[in-house]
Amino acid sequence: MTTTLDDTATTDGTATVGTSAADIEFHYDFGNDFYALWLDETLSYSAAVWDGIDPAEPDTTSLPRAQRAKLDLHLDLAGAAPGAGLRLLDVGCGWGGLLARAVGTGRAAEATGLTLSRAQQAHVRSLGLPGVDVRLESWDGHRPERPYDGIVSVGAFEHFATADLDAAARLAAYRAYFERCHGWLRPGARMSLQTIAYDGVLGGDGPVGAFVAAEIFPGAVLPRLGEIVLASDPYFAVVLVRASAEDYARTLGAWSARLLRARAEAERLVGPDGYRRYRRYLRACEVTFLRGAATLYRIGFRRRDEPLRPAA
């Protein structure tokens, strides 16, 4: 059966394609204090970059260093060099770690973050970051006043389509995202993307996939690299592709260890069942990356001056 794109109303009344605002809040509004127990101080909830970091270094210092390396990599790929003072968009900004890094290092003079989580929006606003505007808004509802110099999206692409869409509808959703980004960017601008993707399996079937879909990320679906390339090619040239399942496995291991150490406080905040659910989730995902069922892609893009059009 062919399915159509699911346009779901967000909390600000705009329509969104992909995971609904309610499903986003099911996960991300579990409590800022809970996530702060086991994420690093930047509250980065995506795979870090572990290059050159000794496995024997304690996660209290290694995880923040690895997460800042990830943030810097994506800012570099988006053309936001230190001191560049760009106008930047962060699609799926989370708790604002990249926004803070961007304005704090002078890479961005103005930065806009998009999130569907009210808890995340409130946290970013509480930071009082100069030049930063965080909006409770979906990417397809975003209407910037003027072009951006760069775009970064880390860990949001997995929510841009839903599991009930067939292959053609998923590709259409991804292509709509890249088309919109092309329109938001100035000529010659750069863009960066980080996403989990299927690798050694064709889909999310099996007990791990079913558990994550039902208990952790309802409505989300992972892309494949071929879908990303097909969807982006009319609008962007790919300048870098980096695959690293190991980075995500090591990040998940660090998160799991930190959550284990904080068990008493975690159970106080979310109850024993909530604690067990997240420990199971982190360990199951770690195994998924270690066995190669999923991988992590970091992709750098350069905006095409004119979209490629099929030959008549």
From TrEMBL:
> What top-tier enzyme class does this entry carry?
transferase
S-adenosyl-L-methionine listed as a keyword: yes
One of the entry's Gene Ontology molecular-function terms is: methyltransferase activity
GO terms, biological process: methylation
Q: Which domain of life is it from?
A: Bacteria
For this protein, what is the EC number?
2.1.1.-
| Keyword hit for Secreted | no
CDD domains linked: AdoMet_MTases
Ordered alphabetically, the record's keywords are: Lipid metabolism, Methyltransferase, S-adenosyl-L-methionine, Transferase
InterPro entries hit by this protein: CFA/CMAS, CMAS, SAM-dependent_MTases_sf
Family the UniProt entry places it in: Belongs to the CFA/CMAS family.
Q: What is this protein called?
A: Class I SAM-dependent methyltransferase
- Its source organism is Kitasatospora misakiensis
Q: What high-level taxonomic lineage is stated for the organism?
A: Bacteria, Bacillati, Actinomycetota, Actinomycetes, Kitasatosporales
